[in-house]
Each structure stands twice: as structure tokens, then as C-alpha cells.
Design a protein that fits this description.
Shape: globular
Largest sheet: 7 strands, mixed
Strand order of the largest sheet: 1-7-6-5-4-2-3
Bound molecules: pyridoxal-5'-phosphate
Number of helices: 14
Radius of gyration: 21 Å
Length: 399
Amino acid sequence: MATKTKADSYRPRTQLVHGGTRRSQYGEMSEAMFLTQGFVYPSPESAEARFKGEAPEDSFIYARYGNPTVAMFEDRVAALEGAEAAFATASGMAAMNAAMFSQLAAGDHVVAARALFGSCLYVIETLLARFGVSHTLVDGGDLAAWKAAVRPETKIFFLESPSNPTLEIVDIRAIADIAHEAGAKLVVDNVFATPIFQRPLELGADMVMYSATKHIDGQGRCLGGVLLSDAETIRGPVETYIKHTGAALSPFNAWVMLKGLETLDLRCRAQAQSADVIARGLEGHGKLVRLLYPGLESHPQHALVQQQMSGGGTMIAFEVRGGKEAAFRFLNALNLILISNNLGDAKSIITHPSTTTHQRLSEEDRQHLGISQGLLRLSVGLEDPQDLLADLLEALDQV
Ligand SMILES: *Cc1c(COP(=O)(O)O)cnc(C)c1O
């Protein structure tokens, strides 16, 4: 609930361990989990002041508005990201929904990249449309298309980079410039890149969202999300929207996420290093049509990767020769890597997008996005990369 911590000058790795900490009178080492819905006021005057918003910082009212454990999580992520403020939500989608519904009204227009997480696309294409907000979807890499999509009523640009599942890179700085010229705000879904390898606010974005469910938890336990921006936006429309509509993050989940943040840098770097080993180990394999990893020189947008990311990330996409049948034979031959649709986990996870996460799209839309029947998306975990590579190579032998 509160804004940025005092120790603003510490570097991100230090912030991940100490940022936002509030110690109770007991001086506990590990962050306290405040499992409370409400807060007791010492007097009616104090209750009145809190409801009027005149109480000192860190005075809480009700857990839907804020909670000390949740506030520690928000401040720690804000300190990591270099944002003025953050608001935590029950899931990544609650954050995305809040980014849109807190800032848009009937008659407004949104420009978004076509390659989006499925539920984000649903919010923009279906839900916003129902409330009179129109949209234009563009190919993320086509700067002229972003420019041409602008209308006088355009309020928000939305994109993710690298995109899901084909790991296409979108030029955040160039699109922020186009958005600002149009008087619109750029919202970036930074889940695939992670806050360790990409800092959208420094690239000109106005708002960043995370599904904390992914790398921030990193061990497959809890759902969570967070929105980061300037204090005026977070304390104004975002906080007002979330606190009255109910997508608050539970204090238990916030505590798990706080613990996840302490090791986020180490985990993301180790997972990215393994992803690099695996991508190089698979590249050029005769049974693959293509392999995409932002850290490889062969990635079609490698120059842009180097410009806006400080690492290749933890995700790899590759296409096996022989379509769905070959992809399924390959998946069934894996022993170590798990078939699931999550990502960013300590356990390596593989997904067949065309029959799962992107099943809802028409075949034509999938083709346009490069989501072929043989495409697989691998989230590299914390296992020994040689065991992962061996699992992949052995399974490829059976295709
Ligand atoms: C998972 C994910 C979301 C949604 O997050 P939830 O926590 O599942 O609600 C949004 N965007 C991207 C890129 C994701 O991977």
C-alpha cells in the first residue's frame, strides 16, 4: 500500500532481499505474515482520519485496501523495478484487468500487439469491446502499423516482449515514443522477460505488469500479480479500482512471493544460463524446423534483444518436424521435463501451444502468429542443464 522504501539507492539484488521490509516490535528476521482482514483503531478519531486518507503512511483499514505483508511485497517489487509505486493483485490477470479498466472509459481506443497471452487478448477483444472500448491489433514488430493505428481517442498501447509463445521481440522504446506522441500510455506485460532481464520503465513504458505466479513465486505455489507505475497513477485510478472491485492479493500469497523475490535474481540467471546451454545444444538439430531463443545470435531480432534485454531469458521455443503427431510423440518420450502450461518454475515445463494455451485461436490466426502444429514452448527450470538437454535429445531420437 505504501510507496517506495527509504533505501532507494540500493541496487536491485539488495532490494530483492531487503526492500519494503516492515519489522514489528518483535524484530523478526523473516517477514511477518499478517493474516488479518481488518485492523483495530485506537480511537474513533483515528478511524475517521484513516477513512479520510489523513492517517500517517502504513495505517491500514481493511485487507482489500492493503495489508502490511502485501505492502512489503509491493514495495519490494517497486524498489526492484525502480517504480514509484506498485499495487499487488490476486493474479496476473487481475493486474492486467486493472491496468485496462482503471484507465479506460467507453469511447476510448486501445492499440495492442496481436501476439499476447490468451487471457489478455480476451480482455481487450471481448470484455473491453462490451463496454464500448475499441481496439486495433497490430504485428508487434511493425512500427508503421502501431503509428497507423493511432486515433484521437487512443489511450493505451499494450504489448508483451518477448511474446508468448514465439519469443518475438517488440521495440519497447520505439513504441513508447509512438504512444507518447499520440498522448497514450504504454503498458508492458513483462512476464516472459522477467524484471531481471528487462526494465520497461527505463525504456519509456508508463506501466509494467507481472504475473507473480510465474518467476516471482518460481516454485509453482501461489497466484499473484502486480502493477507498477508512477505514484499518481497507482495511488489514484489503480488503487481505487482494485480496492473497490476486490482483486486484492492474499497476505499468505504475498508472503510466499516475498520469499520468492529473495532468490529471484539467482534463479532467473541460473535458468537463463541453462536455457542458453540447451538452446545451443539443440540448435541445428535435424529434427527441428526452427529454434528461437533471444540469447542466440541466430534469433531474428538479436540486435534488438541486446538493445533492450540484459539476458536471453528462461524461455525457448522450437518446432519439431512433422507437426502435431511428431510433437506429441516427442512430448510422450520426455522423462524429466514436465508437460504443463505454467512457466518460470524451478521445474522445467513444456507446452504444446496450438492444442492448449492457443487452442481458442483460429488456425488462420495461429498461422499468422507462427504457432504451428509442431511448435513447443520450453520453460527452463533449475535442474542440471545437461540432464535437461539429454532428456530433449533422447526424446528427439524417438520422433
Ligand atoms: C501467466 C501470464 C499472465 C496471467 O497471469 P496469471 O497469474 O495466470 O493470472 C499474463 N501474461 C503472461 C505473459 C503470462 O505468462
